[in-house]
Automatic annotation (TrEMBL):
Gene3D superfamilies: Hect, E3 ligase catalytic domain
InterPro entries in the cross-refs: E3A/B/C-like, HECT_dom, Hect_E3_ubiquitin_ligase
Source organism phylogeny: Eukaryota, Metazoa, Spiralia, Gnathifera, Rotifera
Species, as recorded: Adineta steineri
Alphabetized UniProt keyword annotations: Transferase, Ubl conjugation pathway
Active site: C19
EC number of the protein: 2.3.2.26
Gene Ontology biological-process annotations: protein polyubiquitination
GO molecular function: ubiquitin protein ligase activity
Catalytic activity: S-ubiquitinyl-[E2 ubiquitin-conjugating enzyme]-L-cysteine + [acceptor protein]-L-lysine = [E2 ubiquitin-conjugating enzyme]-L-cysteine + N(6)-ubiquitinyl-[acceptor protein]-L-lysine
Domain HECT: 1-51
This protein's name: HECT-type E3 ubiquitin transferase
């Protein structure tokens, strides 16, 4: 996965480009804002009708529970 910076404010949500394995991630002001925006983006996705719980589980295991 490639993570690219996009905006420089706390307004925009992250955007994923799954075909290209890219995540556009704004430069947020804090880790708490980052976490909130990522969770909001996952919970309000407009994807390919995949099970939302699976997406959230994958997200948490990748970003928050790595050792």
């Amino acid at each position: 996965m490639t993570i690219q910076r996009s905006h420089t404010d706390d307004i925009h949500l992250p955007v994923s480009h799954t075909c290209f394995n890219v995540l556009d991630l704004p430069s947020y002001s804090s880790k708490e804002v980052l976490k909130t925006k990522l969770i909001d983006a996952i919970q309000h996705n407009q994807g390919f009708n995949l099970k939302q719980q699976s997406s959230i589980s994958i997200f948490y295991s990748y970003f928050f529970f790595r050792g």
